[in-house]
Write a structure and sequence with these properties.
single chain, 68% helix
């Protein structure tokens, strides 16, 4: 495992320590969990934006987000992002049924 550090405002540090205490975890484990949750959300946000702009296909955006194609389609629906599927993607989807 690699070592990662960052600077944080005093208030953020206090909030992180409070969460660790409330969850009976050591600070490193709590920081790691929070970071991973944030990373998952950031990957979803970036993949939706790149898909919306046409910079990623549905498959690539799903892969980047860490979601299945079906889950990513549900996320797009929640975010009210219109589908921009190519003919090949539609045909591939039909073949996989």
């Amino acid at each position: 495992m690699e070592f990662v550090s960052f600077r944080a405002e005093k208030e953020l540090k206090m909030q992180l320590e409070l969460l660790a205490t409330m969850e009976n975890k050591n600070k490193s484990d709590e920081y790691r969990e929070i970071f991973l949750l944030g990373m998952q959300e950031k990957k979803k946000e970036v993949s939706v934006r790149k898909y919306r702009l046409g910079e990623l296909s549905l498959g690539k955006a799903s892969e980047l987000s860490g979601l299945t194609n079906w889950e990513f389609l549900q996320l797009l629906r929640e975010k009210k992002v219109p589908l921009n599927l190519t003919k090949e993607e539609v045909l591939e989807g039909v073949e996989n049924l």
